[in-house]
Amino acid sequence: MDPHQLRTFVTVARLGSFSEAARELGYTQSAVSQQIAALEADLGSSLLLRRPVGPTEAGVRLLEHAGPLLLRLDAARADVARLAGTPSTRLLLGTTALAAGATLGNALAEVRRVYPRMDLAVRVVAPETLPALVATGEVDLALIDGLAALSDPLPLPDVGPLTTVAVDEQPLAVALPAGHPLAGHRGVSLADLSAARWLDAPDIAPAAARLRAATAVDGFRPAARYQGTDVRGLLALVAAGHGLAVLPAAALDGVVGVAAVPVREPRLVHRTELVHGSLPEGPAALLAQLLEG
Fold it and tell me: pLDDT tens digits for 212-231?
């Protein structure tokens, strides 16, 4: 299966237009049509309806395979390029909203001391997209946080041969409005709060499905959705009574209007992991060494 034809098929299916796909890919519309026809001939099946443009049943099934296949091809290209690359002073770091902290700041200061001309860029990204960005070389390495059982790894997608190392584990707490009846308690079971109002903040806090899986209890229905990575904005909603959230206890220290009650059951932690591929000598390799040490 030709990867160029597969990528063209995905683009046409996403845009619902041969002409729009040609414009995005820099091809002529005739070339796009020829690639789709060649792919259909190769697979012996019609993949796209023409009027209106959309995937057939076989096309829908191929789309399920296409994303992971193209990602692994991009990851392989990036991995080989890293191994063959020359030393660079560039450092592209991806991080989730709660993974960056004092430890990272201190490590970056040491990297800057060794590489004073380091070109540093930091991207704050949702956790589910970061492994793919590392695999394809869009960032050199990433810090990803999430909910985990004690000493268990984070459930990250398999996007290629990446190295994953735990760099921190912190206790969890439920963020409540300061006037909540449970404010001041020494601990709480998450299962007992399954019927409460929750905030859905997928870029910061564990999703409802993750809480249901961890507690084996239905519930945790979101009362409001918060899209973004600004923790202060999320906690402002908690303080105003719009819903609860599970966060690392350290993120709740000294927040006005918010009470932090430790999670006692189930036994979970806020885990941060460093994810990277092969790293040639340079700022990224040194930062990985400092964080892993």
Answer: 999 999 999 999 999 999 99
* Predicted local distance difference test score (pLDDT) of residue 194: 95
List pLDDT tens digits, range 104-159: 999 999 999 999 999 999 999 988 889 999 999 899 999 999 999 887 899 888 88
Average pLDDT over the chain reads 91
Whether residue 258 contacts residue 175, with contact meaning beta carbons closer than 8 Å, is answered with: yes
Q: Are 275 and 156 in contact (CB under 8 A)?
A: yes
Distance CA 189, CA 179 (A): 19
Q: Per-residue pLDDT for 35 more than 90?
A: yes
- The answer to whether the CB of 246 falls within 8 A of the CB of 234 is no
Query: Which pTM was predicted?
Result: 0.74
